């Protein structure tokens, strides 16, 4: 048996011992914000649904949107709706929510949404529960 044949045999044996690759095929599609403008206020009607799908604290996303859009906010008592205290173009709100997802939810290494935000000393870190990567993120 030549060295090439031995090598190929070793590769075949090694491949047989590898665990099967499991790909769920699921795609992460967070809900689009449903925005209603009432008077001088902008309402995100499905805010709770969005934060639940993103697995993030509603106050974190509310603070982010308030800062990015330059508008004070308040959550309804049941937490289902976010109200921004000025009239804002719905496309701006959608763009900011997408930016939040890219920065504070999706793992930059594996692209999965299975992440948590942890504080290590004074730094905020996005920790991926799928691949184990830790990525520093800006504080909100």
Helix and strand arrangement:
Blueprint: H1 3-17, E1 35-38, E2 41-44, H2 47-54, H3 58-69, E3 73-75, E4 82-84, H4 90-104, E5 115-120, E6 123-128, E7 134-137
Antiparallel strand pairs: 1-2, 2-4, 3-4, 5-6, 6-7
Explained architecture:
- The structure is a single chain.
- This protein has 140 residues and is α+β, with helices and mostly antiparallel strands.
- It has two domains: 75 residues, Defensin A-like; 34 residues.
- The chain contains four helices and seven strands; from the N terminus they run H-E-E-H-H-E-E-H-E-E-E.
- The strands form two sheets. Strands 1-2-4-3 form a four-stranded antiparallel beta sheet, covered by helices on one side. Strands 5-6-7 form a three-stranded antiparallel beta sheet, with no helix packed on it.
- Helix 3 crosses helix 4.
- The longest helix is centred in the N-terminal third of the chain and has 15 residues.
Question: How would you describe this structure in keywords?
Answer:
4-stranded antiparallel β-sheet; Defensin A-like; 3-stranded antiparallel β-sheet; 7 strands; alpha+beta; 140 residues
How would the global form be characterised? Answer: elongated
Strand % is: 15-25%
Work out the helix count.
4
Termini separation (Å)? 63 Å
Q: Major sheet: size, sense and barrel closure?
A: 4 strands, antiparallel
Q: Which blocks of ≥5 consecutive residues have pLDDT under 50? A: none
How many strands?
7
How many domains? The number is: 2
Helix/strand order, N-terminal first: HEEHHEEHEEE
Level-1 CATH class name of the largest domain: Alpha Beta
Mean pLDDT: 89
The CATH architecture of the largest domain comes to 2-Layer Sandwich
As a whole number of angstroms, the C-alpha radius of gyration is: 22 Å
Give the fraction of residues assigned to helices. 25-40%
CATH topology of the largest domain: Defensin A-like
Classify the secondary structure makeup into a structural class. alpha+beta
Strand order of the largest sheet: 1-2-4-3
